[in-house]
Structure formats: C-alpha cells, structure tokens
C-alpha cells in the first residue's frame, strides 16, 4: 500500500461505521448494513492486496487473521462486526506507519555537502568550475576554510588540513610541498596549490559515499515485533475456530472465534509503544529515525564507539603547564603572547586558557612563524621561541636531559607538547591533549548495569593513544589505526560474535560503519551530515550520556511493547475459548476487542513516563 492509503483507510472505515450507525438510529434498517457492506468491500481490497504481496514474497504477517475474520463476517452477513475489524486493522496499520514516519532519509545531505566546485589554474588565470570538470593533472587552488575538491599532491604552499572527518585524527595534519591531500578534508590556515591525482568521482570522499550506500542496500529489514509470534498464534486461532465448528456446526460461532482472535492489540502494541519511545527520546534531544531502531537497540549486545569527537571532546586542550626556573604564569604569558599572532589551531586554545587564568598578554615585535615548527618574537626586548623541541634546538637553545625525557614521555602518552625558551634554555612546556568526555566512564557503567555485554573503541588514531584512553575508561577492547573500510570489517566481525551491534560516531569516516551496524548512533551537534544521514539515531546535544538514555528508553519501550503483545495473546486465547463454546457473539467480540485495544494503548503510552 502507498503511504497515503494507510491514513485514508481508517478514516474511510470510521466514516462508514459512523454513517451506518446514523442510519440505524434513524430507522433506516437495511440501509445501514448496505453502508457497512460497501465499506468492507472497498476498504478490504487494498489490505488483501498487501497481504497477498507479503505472502508471495515469503513474509507471513499476523494481520492475516484479521483479514480472514473480515472476509468471514462479510460472507456471513455480519457487516457491523466486519466494519469494526476493518477499522481496528487499518487503524493499527496507520499507527505503525506514523511510528515509522521518521524513516531514514536518503544520502542527499551527504552528497550535497560533497565538494561542488574547484578553482583551477589555467593559462595564468583562476577559473571556478564544477567539481566534475576537474581532471587528473589539473592544478587547483584551495583557499582557507574551503573543502578540498579532489585528491592530490601539494606543489606550493603550507597549511594545516583538518582530516578528522576522514581519518579520525583529532589534530589537523600539516601539509607542505609533496604532501597528499584528500577530497572532503578542510583547508584550515593558508592557501594551497594542488596537482590532482584522482578524479573527484574516485576520491576518498566518494568511496565513503559508496560504502554507505552499499551498507544501506545490504541491511536486512527489521521484522515487525508482532509478526514474530504470528505463526503459532495463527495455528491456535484456526485450531479453536475448527473446534467451534466441530462443537456446534455453527458458522457464526466460528466467526466469533475469529473476531476475538483479531490481533489488533498485537498490531497496536508495538507502533504505539514505539511512537511513545520516539517522543520521549525527542524530548531529550535524541532523534530516532524509525521505530525499528528502538527495537533493535534494545536487543543490542555490543556497543562500538569511535574515539575522536565521540569518547573525547575532539579539540585538544591544555592539561598542564610546566615551568623551569620561572613562574608557571610567566611561562603561560610568554607562550600565549607569542602564539596570539599564530595561525596554528592550538593557538586559540592557548589564548583562551591564558584569558581564563587572567593572564595579560603582550604583543611581540619582530614576530616570525616557521609554519608547522614554531614562532618567535621579542617580548620586552628579549627574543623568545615557542614551538616544537627541534625548532628550539635549531635556534641554539640547549635541551637538557630532563626536558628530552619529558618529551619522550609526552610522545608515549599521545600528548602534544609545545616548548617555550630563550637564550638561557627551555623555560617551560605547555602540554595539550584530546580530553576524554567527563561523562564517559559513568555512561559505560550504566550500559553494563542495563545488560550490555561488550564495549569496544574503534579509532583511526594511533594505538598508543587508544590504549591510554582505554585504560582510563576500562574499555573491553580497542581497535586502532582503522580506516573507514577497516571500521566496516570490525563492525561485521563483532556482529558475527555478538549478534546485534550498535556503532556510535561523529565523522564522515564513521558513516560506513554507522550504516553497517544494526543500529547507528551519531553525535549530531558537532558531527558531520554524513554520519547523521547514515545513522538510525542522532544525538542533537554535545552529551554522550544521551547514548545511555537512548539505550534505556529502547529497552523500556520493547519491554512495554511485549507486555501489550503477550497480554493481547493471552486474553485473545481466553476469549476464543469462550467464543468456541458460544458465550460470545461476533459483535460483542468485536466490541470486547476494542476494549482490549484501549487497554493496550494506555499501557503502551506508559513508555512516555516509565
């Protein structure tokens, strides 16, 4: 059925039911039955067509019982009962469609955010062309802040390029002559001239798009929860219907069994619980794209987390200032004063840190920046240097054994150390690191308490850095230096080991893994549109705790949905037995089923408050 039909049918059934009652009350006996009969004929055709298509495609749904009950009521002239069943069935279908209206969007956003133009150098001129006109060997210019449109080699210029969305590395990569740059990464600081080595259609960015599409196409559909119990419930129903016929040879009694067996509580329980779960999650800035995602998340056994920007803040911050012979605040003042004129991405973090600590900065004179190495300048008639250890050493500053040993220690921990010095030697060290989110450890504890079996960290960062993070958070397993395609393989491997797997990430490099996992959860506030589009659940605030909240909501949603299903099955079986022995008529059976629907709906709505 088309989506619009899901909403037209229940409206049509309700209209027919109401019109028939008006005619009945007004004394138009006979005409009321004709209205209900016509309503059944018109309303049942699309439902029968849908069920036949499902059967031929190998899918057996529990709503088959309801269709048989409608047809039987029509054959036996029990049009009112048939109309009520039609309303229940079509209403359940409409609710289910509404619950799934947040179905995942196509990859239009990912594609639209791909590079669209390029500045080509040709015959001494700079031409803006469509990215698809770029050819191998073309010379392109990438300005500050622009997305690199094609994979290539830098032939002129130096800059810092943010590749975190592609590689997972938290720090921008320093690019100079001979360096490789990739489509989809962002030029952060200075102009680059690049020779194209691959067509844009063959770039790393396009490969990621293809991986996401492939994963989307290969993902198995979620089976509707009620349908999992359909086979044996149908067998019980037909068995009791046969018993009713055997006992009384009465077709109306057989119809009564089918009517009270009409599985509307089963059909309603899941979509309404899912709607409530989606609504409750949305109030917490957790966008669930479809109800099936909640069901699968509740049954997930392993969570795989990206590191940079997901478990960590994604932006290096100062964790320590070390001084040798001077006050720490003086080291900070000198360092921040020099770095305030720098284009380096760490410079802003240093300035903000100094301002927070009420450090008054001085504008240096004779300022110079050796790109990717360090800066120098005069402060109060004395020249100072701030940068890498080798930069200070090349400028004649003595490096003591203590400083060198500390340098090795920082490298081992995956921390970034920047050194301040003058002619007297190294004056101090400013240490940066990508900080673990403070809520992460409590999140992992909550996930384990709620039944999660395994927590894995999957990152494109170095193994030594990943191991340090792992020890801090007591992660079960780590996989480091993983490219996007490697992340897909790791997700698939954990699916084989643990069954259903959730992937949590925020970058373009996470998109294929998010799409491959049974449930993809993306950090949407600072994450890429690629990761958001390829995920089932998007966290719209910069708080990892919401992942745990989504898991708890999913488990409660599934629990309450199953309560409605098992309640519906249990009561329906009891009612079928009474109907088989002639204690319930078809019309009263339909009305009782409506009462059960109300109970199931009220129970499912508890998800919003549970």
Descriptive tags:
Calcium-transporting ATPase, cytoplasmic transduction domain A, six-stranded antiparallel β-sheet, alpha+beta, Calcium-transporting ATPase, cytoplasmic domain N, 610 residues, Rossmann fold, seven-stranded mixed β-sheet, 22 strands, elongated
What is the secondary structure topology, with strand pairs?
Blueprint: H1 3-25, H2 31-56, H3 64-75, H4 79-99, H5 108-112, E1 117-122, E2 125-130, E3 139-142, E4 152-156, E5 159-162, H6 164-167, E6 173-175, E7 180-181, E8 186-187, E9 192-196, H7 204-218, H8 230-248, H9 251-261, H10 264-283, E10 286-288, H11 291-298, E11 302-306, H12 307-311, E12 317-323, H13 328-339, H14 345-356, E13 365-370, E14 374-379, E15 382-387, H15 389-394, H16 401-413, E16 416-422, E17 425-433, H17 440-449, E18 454-458, H18 463-473, E19 477-479, H19 484-498, E20 501-505, H20 511-516, E21 519-523, H21 529-533, E22 537-539, H22 545-580, H23 586-604
Parallel strand pairs: 11-18, 11-20, 18-19, 20-21, 21-22
Antiparallel strand pairs: 1-2, 1-3, 3-9, 4-7, 4-9, 5-6, 5-8, 10-22, 12-17, 13-14, 14-15, 15-16, 16-17
Helix pairs in contact: 1-2, 1-4, 2-3, 2-4, 3-4, 3-9, 4-10, 4-23, 8-9, 8-22, 9-22, 9-23, 10-11, 10-22, 10-23, 11-22, 13-14, 17-22, 22-23
The CATH superfamily name of the domain at 277-313 and 436-553 is: HAD superfamily/HAD-like
Roughly how many Å apart are the termini? Answer: 34 Å
Helicity range of the residues?
40-55%
The CATH first-level class of the domain at 277-313 and 436-553 comes to: Alpha Beta
Q: Count of helices?
A: 23
Kindly report the spatial arrangement of strands forming the biggest sheet. Answer: 10-22-21-20-11-18-19
The CATH topology of the domain at 277-313 and 436-553 turns out to be Rossmann fold
Report the CATH architecture of the domain at 277-313 and 436-553: 3-Layer(aba) Sandwich
The helix-and-strand class reads alpha+beta
Q: What coarse outline follows from CA principal-axis ratios?
A: elongated
Please give the largest β-sheet. Answer: 7 strands, mixed
Rg, Å, rounded? 33 Å
Query: Strand share of the residues?
Result: 15-25%
Q: Which stretches of 5+ consecutive residues score pLDDT under 50? A: 102-110, 219-223
Q: What is the averaged pLDDT score?
A: 81
* Total number of strands: 22
């Amino acid at each position: 059925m088309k989506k619009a039909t899901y909403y037209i049918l229940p409206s049509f059934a309700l209209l027919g039911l109401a019109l028939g009652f008006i005619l009945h009350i007004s004394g138009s006996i006979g005409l009321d039955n004709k209205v209900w009969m016509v309503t059944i004929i018109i309303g049942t055709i699309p439902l029968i067509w849908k069920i036949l298509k499902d059967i031929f495609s190998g899918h057996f749904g529990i709503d088959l019982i309801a269709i048989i009950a409608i047809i039987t009521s029509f054959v036996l002239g029990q049009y009112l009962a048939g109309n009520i069943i039609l309303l229940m069935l079509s209403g359940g279908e409409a609710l289910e469609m509404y619950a799934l209206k947040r179905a995942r969007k196509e990859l239009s956003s990912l594609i639209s955010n791909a590079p669209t133009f390029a500045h080509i150098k040709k015959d001494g001129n700079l031409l803006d062309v469509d990215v698809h006109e770029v050819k191998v060997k073309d010379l392109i210019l990438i300005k500050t802040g622009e997305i690199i449109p094609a994979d290539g080699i830098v032939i002129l210029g130096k800059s810092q390029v943010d590749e975190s969305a592609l590689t997972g590395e938290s720090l921008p990569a320093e690019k100079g002559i001979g360096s490789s740059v990739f489509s989809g990464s962002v030029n952060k600081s200075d102009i680059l001239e690049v020779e194209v080595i691959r067509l844009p259609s063959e770039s790393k960015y396009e490969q990621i798009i293809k991986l996401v599409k492939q994963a989307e196409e290969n993902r198995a559909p979620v089976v509707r929860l009620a349908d999992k119990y359909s086979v044996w419930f149908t067998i019980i129903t037909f068995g009791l219907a046969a018993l009713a016929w055997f006992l009384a040879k009465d077709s109306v009694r057989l119809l009564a069994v089918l009517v009270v067996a009409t599985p509307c509580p089963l059909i309603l329980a899941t979509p309404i619980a899912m709607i409530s779960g989606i609504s409750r999650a949305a109030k917490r800035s957790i966008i669930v794209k479809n109800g099936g995602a909640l069901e699968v998340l509740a049954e997930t056994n392993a969570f795989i987390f990206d590191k940079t920007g997901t478990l960590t803040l994604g932006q290096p911050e100062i964790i320590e200032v070390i001084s040798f012979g001077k006050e720490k605040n003086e080291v900070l003042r000198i360092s921040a004063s020099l770095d305030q004129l720098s284009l380096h991405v760490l410079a802003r973090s240093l300035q903000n840190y100094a301002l927070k600590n009420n450090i008054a900065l001085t504008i240096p004179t004779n300022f110079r920046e050796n790109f990717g190495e360090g800066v120098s300048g005069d402060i109060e008639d004395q020249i100072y240097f701030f940068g890498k250890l080798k930069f200070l050493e090349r400028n004649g500053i003595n490096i003591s054994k203590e400083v060198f040993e500390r340098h090795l220690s920082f490298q081992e921990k995956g921390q970034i150390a920047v050194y301040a010095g003058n002619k007297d030697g190294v004056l101090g060290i400013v240490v940066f690191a990508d900080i673990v989110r403070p809520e992460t450890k409590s999140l992992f504890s909550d996930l384990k308490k709620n039944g999660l079996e395994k927590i894995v960290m999957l990152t494109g960062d170095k193994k030594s850095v990943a191991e340090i993070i792992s020890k801090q958070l007591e992660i079960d397993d780590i996989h480091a230096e993983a490219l996007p395609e490697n992340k897909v393989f790791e997700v698939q491997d954990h699916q084989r080991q643990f069954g259903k797997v959730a992937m949590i990430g925020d970058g373009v490099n996470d998109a294929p893994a998010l799409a491959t996992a049974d449930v993809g959860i993306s950090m949407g506030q600072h994450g890429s549109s690629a990761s958001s589009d390829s995920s089932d659940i998007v966290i719209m605030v910069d708080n990892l705790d919401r992942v745990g909240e989504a898991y708890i909501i999913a488990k409660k949603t599934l629990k309450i949905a199953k309560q409605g299903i098992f309640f519906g099955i249990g009561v329906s079986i009891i009612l079928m037995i009474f109907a088989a022995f002639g204690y319930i008529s078809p019309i009263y059976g339909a009305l009782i089923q409506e009462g059960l629907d109300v109970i199931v709906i009220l129970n499912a709505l508890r998800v919003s408050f549970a």
